[in-house]
Amino acid sequence: MSRYRPEDLRRFVARVLESAGALAEEAEVVADALVCADLRGVHSHGVVRAGIYLDRLRAGSIRPGAQLAVVRDSGAAVLCDAGSGFGVVAACRAMDLAVERARRYGVGAVGVRNSNHCGMLAYFVLRAIAQGAVGVALSNADAQVAPYGARARYLGTNPLSVGIPAGEEPAIVLDMATSEVAHGRVQAAAVRGERIPPTWALGPDGRPTTDPQQALRGALVPFGGAKGSGLALVVDVLAGLVTGGRSGPEVVPLYEELHRPQGVGHLMLALWPEAFCGLRTLRDRVDRLVRDIRALPPAEGFDRVWLPGEPEYRRQLEYAQAGIPLPEEAVAVLQQLAEKAGLAAPEAVP
Amino acid sequence: MSRYRPEDLRRFVARVLESAGALAEEAEVVADALVCADLRGVHSHGVVRAGIYLDRLRAGSIRPGAQLAVVRDSGAAVLCDAGSGFGVVAACRAMDLAVERARRYGVGAVGVRNSNHCGMLAYFVLRAIAQGAVGVALSNADAQVAPYGARARYLGTNPLSVGIPAGEEPAIVLDMATSEVAHGRVQAAAVRGERIPPTWALGPDGRPTTDPQQALRGALVPFGGAKGSGLALVVDVLAGLVTGGRSGPEVVPLYEELHRPQGVGHLMLALWPEAFCGLRTLRDRVDRLVRDIRALPPAEGFDRVWLPGEPEYRRQLEYAQAGIPLPEEAVAVLQQLAEKAGLAAPEAVP
After folding, report:
1. Using one digit for the tens of pLDDT, what is the confidence trace for B213-223?
2. ipTM rounded to 2 decimals
3. Do A75 and B105 lie within an 8 Å CB cutoff?
4. For residue B5, is it within any domain?
């Protein structure tokens, strides 16, 4: 597999977005977030997404230069309107604002409406961690998931992410969709003509299916039954309704109606450790917790116990040195982007 | 099944607790919380728990009259010490304080350490809802759950609850343990000599077991695999570490070492809707969302789609009128409590 230097990918993606009118500063943030996902091995949210961002920029549904406008400022809580700018940029600014308010009041909560797809949520909680805060990020998404007990789509894959600073150990970074699997995995199985496990999706008849074609006409299911479904619903309410944004099927699908802004909503929360047990104590105790859990005897079928975000962190360290091994689909996307933007595609590490 | 009037149960439980030194005001709060659980059909967290609370009161590990002391006040965030008082009382006061701060700053976060078992979390988010706020409640618990990939216990069943006000529809109340099932369900199967599904627990050998005796010597598993395990961990960190309280195996088991306070931690969060989209808008939109989801076509094997907290709400309405149908174990507990406290047990509705 070809490996790419992170800085080459960043520069390339930024130029592609700038070619369609993105400001240099926002193009850099988006490029950094996408390449961060690839660095962590989360290729579904990496440079492959630059394609749809470019298309939406050109169609006018991602508005370059949009500011995160404050709608209401209550001190620790701020409601913002993203003005249909880049979701990544809005989410970064919202998390930074949440951290700023948390530093002042102990906790900060920033709601964002009229945003777009914001990519891998871990990126934003890592930003909070880098500033010494505990970060929580929620986002809604377009309807692909049937609530528990239903056969029709209503909820998004509505992810949630929580980041906890550690000391010498990697930070704890939980980042999960509330669906059993991402839509992309069903699509990939359909392309390859493979069956899917019956626990991933329902067909249009409301019955679990192993046929990815049926699943694509049906609905994904939430992870963990009624509990995961409840979490998906709560994420939609907090990110979509509470912010005064769109929710459920009102959110425009990322890959459809490209001229319409998606209207995605986010909620970013930060806790300032000094308002609680103190950052130093927290770091020490998280280190101990991480080491304790890592040292637990593995269950049958496991070699060792991993902490949330630990595999991604190890990949990030490795790929930053050795280059990012991009999957074929991503390399193909780079080629398409180069053609569309009239640029040279980045070269693989020799 | 015998039915009991909620007010009879409340009065009885309060007197039982007062007989062991609880102040009238705190005994009333605890009794109301336990009976609320029975009213909602959550009998595992109902009057059956009064027994262990009484034993812990007598052993001195629940301290009557303990105040929720403010350790650090940062405006929107407050860190408190429960002084080993009743968990229910500390959690109520913490949620009320979180709502008060949310009203002032848009969001409020109250951490509590040195608390005890606080029962059904829904009780606290219902309190937030009654005050017009969105409420989130987290609590850690003693170690019964093996983190994903491990064969040994480390995490508690660490529940989380989220409450969202509605208008004419019942509020959305998600309340879930992060374990696949409660410990009590494995115990119940052991008593009845029944098998359990292999998805509930691991035996001491780290393999899934259908033998409840093996499961009791082993560990419960998180719901939803790695995702549920990540949530259980995050709840422990937020409720236990961030508050400077105990975490993981440091938390004293509810039914062991009765002389030692448990050292449970909670985190209560409240969002003030007026700082976001406004309460009226939120109520209207939640009503619409609830009706939309309820109207979705059911999946195979389902009669209809339920919202989180809706079955419990319906039971609450019915049982408040017709009396609470207590399961046999609960009736037996009432008899034991009556004997221990030298009181007459409440009488069933004729």
Report:
1. 999 999 999 99
2. 0.97
3. yes
4. yes
